[in-house]
Write a structure and sequence with these properties.
Elements: H1 7-30, H2 37-44, H3 48-54, H4 58-62, H5 66-78, H6 86-101, H7 107-115, H8 117-140, H9 148-166, H10 171-188
Length: 189
Amino acid sequence: MTVPTGRRERKKAATRQKIADTALRLFLERGYDAVGIRDVAAEADVAVTTLFSHFASKEALVFDQDDNFEQRLTQAVTNREPHEPLIPALRHEIQAMVRHCTADGTAPIYRMIDESRALREYEESMRLRHAESLATALIADPDLSQSATACRTIARFVIDAYSLARETADPQAALEEIFEMIEAAWEVA
């Protein structure tokens, strides 16, 4: 994600982060279902309309890095050097995302997500959206000759790699195994 440069942009980014941090703290302290949007807004000292100008829904408060992750995935495709191999670029980005999501202190967040149907459904729709954005970037890449179907399939595999690895005891080893399969599938396509 681009670092805000102007005063106004920095202030907006700080407000957004304050809202996200406040929401997560309240959700973890009281439980996701026990906290309402008004509770988060009041605790963050912002208006409800301000909260909604930064986050489209209550679920989005939990996944505050959603847009950043999606952007980083597509940039792994669009910002690679000419003729730079695709799969290693995607592997690198997924590894960074898994490290972020398996860092110390994240287990309670994922327990909360697992316990909430609304959050699980939101996460699934988010993954599908990320896969579609990644597929769109792959299809548009003039250096890639694979079909749209192959691009969509690999995009789903990459997004699923993130989810599967995050849930294992050794996420990095899981990613290595999964990306060996992804690379083989890409070469066949």
